[in-house]
Each structure stands twice: as C-alpha cells, then as structure tokens.
Write a structure and sequence with these properties.
The protein is an alpha+beta fold. Helix content is 39%, strand content 24%. A five-stranded mixed β-barrel has the order 1-2-3-5-4. The radius of gyration is 21 Å and the shape is elongated.
C-alpha cells in the first residue's frame, strides 16, 4: 500500500539506529501507522525532523511493507502547539493514550477528529483538567466504548446529589454506602450530568471525574497503566513535598 499526501498527527517518535526514527502517526483513513524515517539526522534534514515531532499535523508519503511503512516524504501542515509545564505533560498523556488505544491499520476518522479538537484546545490554553476529561470521554466515544453519563446503568436518571462508580461495561452505578477512603474514586452526579451536557462543572465536581474515568480507561488498556499517569503521580507527590517543606509565610 502507498500513502500519498496522507494527513496525520504525529503521536510519537524515537531514534532508531544511527540516523533514523521510528514514528507513530494517527491517520483518519488508516488509523495508527508505524513509519520508519531513514536518514533524518543529517544537517539538511532539520525541516523533516521538525515535521516528525509529537503533536505535529503532517502530510506524508510512504509505502507499507509489513507492519511498518517506509516514510518517503513528510511536511508540516501547521505549527504544533507550544506547550509548557502541565500542558506539555497533558500533551504527552494525550499522545500516549491514542498510541495505546488506536488499532493499527483501521480507519479512525472520529478519533482523528477528537485529536484535532483537543490539540486546538491545548493551543488555546483552555482549562486543562476540563480539557482532559472531555478528551477522555470523546476518545471512548470515538472507539465505540463510550458511556451514557446522563443515565445510570439500570436506566435511571442520574441524581445530581448522589455519587457513582463508572462500570466500563454498564455505565454509572449509584453507590448507596461509601467505604472509608472510597469517596475519591466516585464521581458526583452533578459531574456526570455536566460531562453529558458538555458544560464545565465546578472544581470539586470536576475533580471527582478523574479517577472514575481513569478506571474505565484502564479497563480498555487491559489493566496496564500509562507512563504519563506515573509521571503525574510523581509530580503530585513532589509538589506536596515541596509545599510541606516550604517555610510558613510571615504575617
């Protein structure tokens, strides 16, 4: 199979041998494609290397040979978002999630559109936590395993005042009695309704979505977590330690 000016987003690139890269891209028509980009480390190849950076929108030519395609040419369509700090980590997470969930050589027009949308939300500096929760919801929908956040698994309407566990196969399950320490693993009904209507909830309700959605994603990742989750956890522990060790402000 040959690819001619195929539109795609770069998910990942890593060095291979002395002068080459192994690149993973997300295409609307062909899903996730692995590319071998040979001889891109030379001084005259800086434009090609720049086009093969994660989050970059490209058009490429290539030829499929077995599992990996040989890259013939690639050019950037626009400038990738310039992300720093937490936003850069969010970009890494978005790419890793797509890399793990998108199948090879299977059309993914919905996922491609979701990626394009979250890329622009990151570029615009929209609230990061809400941007990621919407992305997680939309990725699951694009892959055909999304949930109805307005209805409980039994078919009852979501109660804004209740708390729910997200069952990956059956949807929200109302929790009537919480065990010690369980609350942080449960989403509020208000948060689920906000997610269903695409209306940003308050900060406490928004925070309640993170771990329940992560549990659903982990199910579809076959129980194997993401490196970006480990990084986020380490960053959170470091921030907490710095906060505890900082001298108290006077006055």
């Amino acid at each position: 199979m040959r690819y001619i000016t195929e539109p795609a987003f770069v998910l990942h690139a890593r060095p291979w041998r002395e002068t080459s890269l192994l690149v993973e891209v997300l295409s609307a028509e062909h899903g996730r494609i692995g590319l071998v980009a040979r001889g891109v480390q030379g001084p005259k190849k800086h434009l090609l290397r720049a086009a093969l950076q994660p989050l970059q929108s490209i058009r490429f030519d290539g030829e499929q040979r077995g599992e990996l395609a040989q890259l013939r040419a690639a050019e950037a369509v626009d400038a990738a978002p310039l992300l720093h700090g937490d936003a850069a980590l969010a970009g890494f997470y978005i790419n890793e999630l797509c890399l793990r969930l998108a199948p090879r050589q299977a059309p993914q027009p919905e996922l491609h559109a979701v990626y394009a949308q979250v890329r622009e939300r990151l570029r615009a500096g929209e609230p990061l936590a809400w941007t990621l929760r919407r992305f997680e919801r939309d990725v699951l929908d694009a892959l055909g395993v999304g949930l109805d956040y307005a209805l409980a698994g039994e078919g009852d309407a979501i109660d804004p005042a209740a708390r729910y566990r997200l069952d990956p196969e059956h949807g929200p399950r109302r929790v009537l009695g919480e065990r010690a320490g369980e609350r942080r693993e449960l989403a509020t009904g208000r948060a689920l309704l906000a997610l269903a209507s695409d209306a940003q909830p308050g900060s406490e309700d928004l925070a309640s979505l993170r771990l329940p959605l992560r549990a659903v994603l982990l199910h579809h990742l076959s129980g194997r977590g993401l490196k970006s989750w480990e990084m986020l956890g380490a960053l959170g522990r470091l921030t907490a330690a710095q906060r505890c060790s900082a001298p108290a402000a006077s006055g």
